[in-house]
């Protein structure tokens, strides 16, 4: 029997997320990102389509590597202006019952004690539907914004993040017993069932968690590291891993490595962009229409920041050489050490079909369903993080055209199971005993 495909919407609380320039399309409504009604309407649509969740990306700092400043990012709305995605979640949760919410927060710039309370609050308010996309941050502009001269070295950020995770595990899993709240004979909480916990490694902390046990205790853990150190971190901590790649063999090898390293069950989601029509011809006409609005400059500004390489300084046909930086090493490796062919700036620009390096899957619902099934069978992924193109029609196309096709094939759910986000993904509400967080909290 074919594996059930899982879908997340991949979005960001800004105008331009992955596919740069599409905000200029006359039907696009992403400039309404500052309106709660925009997000609550999206949440209702996603729940109607039985999406597992909405995955909200975030970044601290501006993309200021291309040309040595943030001008191109500002001109093209490349993830700026950008509001705090955490603030959107309670509003979306209030109009839905099952939709999950994965939100990106960094381990580098916020004390774990404060962060743990915020995640517990969201888990409580959403009835156990919160997930955390763990990032360490990669922008020097973010480091400067919080008073540092430059970002912490790549592998060192992951070493610190290990301590950070082990500390928040103690707060979420070990500070309060499940039966600490008694509400009996004038006693609300039994003090003997609550304890202070200490920080781990470089984290200096001595405190009890302020929040009583929530439905999941620890939020569902997402991570997207694809570098060697990032994969080690993801295998140790992540329950859901987000991967990118244009080659099924490349992604399949990455997935196999992650599953071999992990000691707990993993769900793997690959990034995808879909352009769907009622026929293949209609979908390709739609792609041609969208392409007229894609921004090469915006894509270069984003990719320069992601790699730490200023592509404004490159000649069009000069080979792109590997450079070591504190930026996203997996993106650097993808066009250098892990690439099968030599990349140039010209080749990079040619790959920006819709304002990013992510090539779209284009066709009728049947054609797109075939493509998704091939990814699942050939690369061993569980589902897809679907980045937006023109909003909200790209989401409505998935819900109204693709989802019925997947359901007719028996590879997509026809209803939600009850319970928390972790219940829906793994069949249980709490971290499994084999997970590092459950072990380290004891």
Number of beta-strand segments = 14
Largest sheet: 8 strands, parallel, barrel
Overall outline: globular
- Percent strand equals 5-15%
| Sheet with the most strands: spatial strand order | 1-2-3-4-9-10-11-14
CATH H-tier superfamily: Luciferase-like domain
Tell me the distance between the termini: 39 Å
Low-pLDDT residue intervals, each spanning 5 or more residues: none
Query: What name is given to the CATH topology?
Result: TIM Barrel
CATH class: Alpha Beta
Number of helices: 16
**SSE class:** alpha/beta
On the 0 to 100 scale, the average pLDDT is 93
What is the name of the CATH architecture?
Alpha-Beta Barrel
User: Total domains, how many?
Assistant: 1
The SSE string, one letter per element, is EHEHHEHEHHEEEEEHEHEEHHHHEHEHHH
Radius of gyration: 22 Å
Percentage of helical residues?
25-40%
Describe the 3D structure.
The chain has 442 residues and is an alpha/beta fold. It has one domain: Luciferase-like domain (TIM Barrel). 38% of the residues lie in helices and 14% in strands. It contains 16 helices and 14 strands. The protein has an eight-stranded parallel β-barrel with strand order 1-2-3-4-9-10-11-14, surrounded by four helices. The chain has a two-stranded antiparallel sheet with strand order 5-6. The protein starts with 5 loop residues before the first strand and ends with a helix. The model has no long low-confidence stretch (mean pLDDT 93).
């Amino acid at each position: 029997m074919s594996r059930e495909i899982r879908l997340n919407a991949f979005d960001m609380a800004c105008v331009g997320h992955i596919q740069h320039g599409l905000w200029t399309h006359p039907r696009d409504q992403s400039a309404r990102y500052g309106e709660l009604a925009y997000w609550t309407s999206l949440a209702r649509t996603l729940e109607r389509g039985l999406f597992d969740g909405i995955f909200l990306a975030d970044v601290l700092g501006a993309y200021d590597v291309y040309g040595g400043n943030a001008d191109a990012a500002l001109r093209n709305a490349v993830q700026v202006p950008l509001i705090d995605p955490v603030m959107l979640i309670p509003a979306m949760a209030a109009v839905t019952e099952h939709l999950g919410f994965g939100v990106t927060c960094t381990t580098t710039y916020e004390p774990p004690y404060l962060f743990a309370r915020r995640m517990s609050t969201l888990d409580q308010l959403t009835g156990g539907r919160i997930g955390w996309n763990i990032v360490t941050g990669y922008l020097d502009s973010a480091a400067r914004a919080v008073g540092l001269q430059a970002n912490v070295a790549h592998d060192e950020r992951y070493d610190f993040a290990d301590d950070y995770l082990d500390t928040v595990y103690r707060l979420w899993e070990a500070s309060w017993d499940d039966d600490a709240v008694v509400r009996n004979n004038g006693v609300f909480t039994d003090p003997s069932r609550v304890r202070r916990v200490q920080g781990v490694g470089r984290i200096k902390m001595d405190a009890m968690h302020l929040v009583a046990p929530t439905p999941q205790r620890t939020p569902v853990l997402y991570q997207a590291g694809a570098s060697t150190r990032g994969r080690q971190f993801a295998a140790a901590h992540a329950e859901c891993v987000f991967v990118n790649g244009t080659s099924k063999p490349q992604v399949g090898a990455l997935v196999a490595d992650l599953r071999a390293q992990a000691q707990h069950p993993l769900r793997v989601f690959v990034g995808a962009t879909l352009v769907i029509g009622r026929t293949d011809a209609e979908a390709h006409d739609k792609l041609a229409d969208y392409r007229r609005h894609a921004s090469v400059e915006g894509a270069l500004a984003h990719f320069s920041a992601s790699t730490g390489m200023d592509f404004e300084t490159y000649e069009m046909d000069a080979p792109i050489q590997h450079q070591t930086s504190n930026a996203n090493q997996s993106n650097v490796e993808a066009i250098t050490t892990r690439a099968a062919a030599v990349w140039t700036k010209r080749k990079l620009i040619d790959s920006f079909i819709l304002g990013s390096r992510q090539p779209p899957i284009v066709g009728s619902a049947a054609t797109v369903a075939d493509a998704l099934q091939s990814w699942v069978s050939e690369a061993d992924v569980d589902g897809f993080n679907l980045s937006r193109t023109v909003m909200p029609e790209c989401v409505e196309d998935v819900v109204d055209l693709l989802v019925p096709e997947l359901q007719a094939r028996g590879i997509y759910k026809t209803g939600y199971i009850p319970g928390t986000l972790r219940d829906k993904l793994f069949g249980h509400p709490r971290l499994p005993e084999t997970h590092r967080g459950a072990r380290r909290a004891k």
